[in-house]
Every structure is written in structure tokens, then in C-alpha cells.
Automatic annotation (TrEMBL):
Record-given protein name: Bifunctional ligase/repressor BirA
GO molecular function: ATP binding; biotin--[biotin carboxyl-carrier protein] ligase activity; DNA binding
HAMAP family linked: Bifunct_BirA
Residues annotated to bind DNA: 16-35
Record: residues binding biotin: 82-84, 106, 110-112, 177
Keyword tags: ATP-binding, Biotin, DNA-binding, Ligase, Nucleotide-binding, Repressor, Transcription, Transcription regulation
Chain ranges of the BPL/LPL catalytic domain: 73-247
Catalytic activity field: biotin + L-lysyl-[protein] + ATP = N(6)-biotinyl-L-lysyl-[protein] + AMP + diphosphate + H(+)
GO-annotated biological processes: regulation of DNA-templated transcription
Length: 315
């Protein structure tokens, strides 16, 4: 499938005869591969008699050779259930960290709290970084917030200056989500564990039917198609710099930078913990990355993996 996609990725028309000659197969076999391609990848392919076949839009395919100078080893997959799930499979096989898993598509992409993550073929970045943590609980302190800063500054490197952070795991442009972060652990955090840092960035996506909240993408914000290989390489560099510093200082040295970029400071919000709801005003985060809310005039702090923050209807 990937070989056929490489022939079609320019977005031009290609005749079945020409495609068959390049692939060494018959025109009918080309047709069958195109049918499978549409079914497996959800790509739209135009079929015009006398002209041939054309992708609805050009594709920017990931290229493993483009990661040869990356600061982390990068393993490219065509389609996976999710890059985090693939990362855990590699951990179970004893693959030595650190390394990165990326994919052209996820067919079971996940966000926080089990939410679906829209993952169309060859349009966005689906990324998981695997790290080994040896008895260093401080290395896990507010880690998702530090990763958020790395993602935010990666997007700024590509010209998105209006980008900001929402506690604890979202990256926004205005009130539209452009990236999300999902951290998962396996092992004993007090001894030896692995952390999988899952990151999804909307890069060239222009339409989506399965997203249940306002969203945007790098190409929608900049008006240009963005090279995903370049995004992944830039993200690797930003992450390595931020994570190295975080391992030494913890979150405290990033506190001011994070609050400067927190777009919901002072907003009226509802904090959801299961069926429990707390209404308050965002004050910021503390030195350990916990959310600070003013609730009925009282300052309270909240932290944990199953908390969800949303704007109040009357804010």
C-alpha cells in the first residue's frame, strides 16, 4: 500500500496503466489495491475515465531517512492501533529506551480518559516517546506540563504565535485544540519504570467528523502545508532539552514559563472528577504543577490523572 501511495502522493492524475507498469502488476490489480487503500486509510481517491486516479489532496509521507540525525531513535509504522500501545509492546519485548514511535495512522488513537483521538492517514503527527526512569520520582513531577511547554515551543518554531496551554494536557490556539498529551506509566515509579509520552499534533488536517470539540491544525493556522518530518525532528529536540532540564530541577524552574502561557488564567471553570464537579476560578498552578482554583473565596489545589477541566457555561 505504501508503495502505491508514494506514486500518488503528488496529488496529480496517474493512469492505471502507468501505475501498473511501475508496480509490475496488472491494471485490475491496481484497481484492487486502490480499493483496499481507500478502505484501510480512509483516503479519498478520484477516479476519472481517461485520466486515471488522483488523491483528493497531496500527501506528505513520513520518511525514516529524514530521522537519521534525530536526537532519539525513531521507529516508523504505517498503521498501528495507537503509538502508545505500540510503545508498550516494545517495552514488553525489552527494547532499550529512549526511542520514539511514530505512525502514519492510528486506528484506535486515544486521548485522556479513554477519549478517541482522530487520526487520519498521513495528515498529523502521532508520536510516543519512551523513557526509562530509575528511582527518580522528581522526574515525573508535573511531567505532562513540561511536555506541554516543549510542544508549545515546537509549534511556535513553525510560526504559530497565538498558541497556549490548558491544564493539564492540552495545547490550544484560542479556544481550539491543536495538540494533546497522554502520559502512561508501567513499572514502579519509586524504583524502575517506563513512561510513555504520547503526543498528537494536528498538522495538515483540514476536515474531521469525529472530533467532539473545537479544533484547528498547523496548516489551518498558517495557511500552508507543513512537513511532518520537520515537526517530529523539531519536537524531538525541544523535548530532549526540556526533559534534561526537568530531570535536574523538577518543575519549579518552569513554573513561571508555564503560567505565562496558560490561556485559562482567571477563567471561570468546572473541574470534573468522575461525577463530582467543582466550580471555581483558575488562579494558576503550584510549584508541583497542581491546579490552583479559587472556590467560593477559598484557594484549593487539585492534581491527578482523572481530572478534566472545562470552561463554565457562563464564562
Amino acid at each position: 500500500m505504501l508503495t502505491l501511495l508514494k506514486l500518488l502522493k503528488d496529488g496529480h492524475f496517474h493512469s492505471g496503466q502507468a501505475l501498473g507498469a511501475q508496480l509490475g502488476i496488472s491494471r485490475s490489480a491496481v484497481w484492487k489495491q486502490l480499493q483496499r487503500l481507500e478502505a484501510d486509510s480512509n483516503l479519498s481517491i478520484h477516479k476519472v475515465r481517461g485520466r486515471g486516479y488522483q488523491l483528493a489532496f497531496p500527501l506528505d509521507l513520513l520518511d525514516e531517512a529524514g530521522f537519521s540525525n534525530s536526537c532519539y531513535p525513531v521507529h516508523l509504522h504505517e498503521i498501528v492501533d495507537s503509538t502508545n500501545a505500540e510503545a508498550f509492546r516494545q517495552i514488553n519485548k525489552g527494547h532499550s529506551a529512549p526511542y520514539v514511535i511514530v505512525a502514519e495512522q492510528q486506528n484506535a488513537g486515544r486521548g485522556r480518559r479513554g477519549r478517541n483521538w482522530e487520526s487520519p492517514f498521513a495528515q498529523n503527527v502521532y508520536y510516543s516517546l519512551v523513557l526509562r526512569v530509575d528511582g527518580g520520582l522528581r522526574q515525573l513531577e508535573a511531567l505532562s506540563l513540561v511536555v506541554g511547554l516543549a510542544v508549545l515551543n515546537t509549534l511556535k518554531d513553525f510560526g504559530l504565535q497565538a498558541v497556549g496551554l490548558k491544564w493539564p494536557n492540552d495545547v490550544l490556539v484560542g479556544d481550539k485544540k491543536i495538540a494533546g498529551i497522554l502520559l502512561e506509566l508501567v513499572g514502579d515509579p519509586a524504583d524502575v519504570c517506563h513512561v510513555v509520552i504520547g503526543i498528537g499534533i494536528n498538522v495538515n488536517m483540514r476536515t474531521a467528523t469525529g472530533v467532539g470539540q473545537p479544533w484547528t491544525s498547523m496548516s489551518l493556522e498558517t495557511g500552508m502545508r507543513v512537513e511532518r518530518n520537520e515537526v517530529i525532528n523539531a519536537l524531538n529536540k525541544r523535548l530532549k532539552n526540556y526533559l534534561n532540564a526537568h530531570a535536574v530541577t523538577g518543575f519549579s524552574s518552569f513554573h513561571a514559563e508555564w503560567e505565562k502561557n496558560h490561556v485559562w488564567q482567571g477563567r471561570d471553570v468546572s473541574l470534573m472528577a468522575g461525577l463530582h464537579q467543582v466550580d471555581g476560578v483558575v488562579v494558576g498552578v503550584d510549584q508541583q504543577g497542581a491546579l490552583r482554583l479559587c472556590v467560593n473565596g477559598e484557594l484549593r489545589t487539585y492534581s491527578g490523572g482523572e481530572l478534566s477541566l472545562r470552561l463554565r457555561d457562563d464564562s
